[in-house]
Amino acid sequence: MKLKINNYISESYVDGPGIRFTVFTQGCIHNCPGCHNPQTHDFNKGVYFDNEKIVELMNKNPLIEGLTLSGGDPLMQIDECLDLAKMVKNQDKNYDIVLYTGYTFEQIIEMGKKNDNLMELLKYIDYLIDGPFILKLRDLELNYCGSSNQRVIDVQKTLKENKIIIADI
Q1: What's the distance, CA 130 to chain centroid?
Q2: In degrees rounded to 5, what are phi and psi of residue 150?
């Protein structure tokens, strides 16, 4: 399967814990004023990139600790991200997965009632940075978030306990 991406960074230190392989998906409907990646919004731009190639590139670097799906908004390509997440998790590498989205976790759960693949994708995500970027709430002191309304959610604990659990990373 191919994911439509804007770009990737083979070694990122700011998109989640540890050294990350970060993929910037193409396409976003949120269009947050002040967005860090406005070039990723247009659905007509970007290139299709094979998910197997992404995993191959990740595996070439022994320092990589996980995959970050950023954007754009990865949830604009649920099936493709699910395919990639399964490939990443179904290895002996012990990678974690971070996903950035402009949707809140509560909105994702509502959307998941109509999309089984979205709920399945959550089973593979370790940390979700949720919510739109809000320029007036911008805070450069936050880890992994751009504005104070955004949360770093431990998805697996949240699903297990059926309440939002903020990650301590």
Answers
A1: 9
A2: -80, 150
Which secondary-structure segment (H or E) carries 107? helix 105-112
User: Length of the chain in residues, anyone?
Assistant: 169
Q: Kindly tell me the sign of the dihedral angle through the C-alpha atoms of 59, 63, 69, 72.
A: negative
Q: 41: pLDDT confidence band, cut at 50, 70 and 90?
A: very high
Quote the tokens at residue 139.
Answer: 């805070």
pTM of the model: 0.97
| pLDDT score at 118 | 98
- Per-residue b/e over 147-163, b at no fewer than 16 CB within 10 Å? beebbbbbbbebbeeee
| Tokens 């590139």 found at | 57
User: In the predicted model, what is the mean pLDDT of residues 36-65?
Assistant: 97
Instruction: Please answer whether residues 22 and 8 qualify as being in contact, where contact means their C-beta atoms are separated by less than 8 angstroms.
Output: yes
Neighbouring CB atoms inside 10 A of 145's CB total: 19
Residue 82 one-letter amino acid: L
pLDDT tens-digit map of 90-117: 999 999 999 999 999 999 999 999 999 9
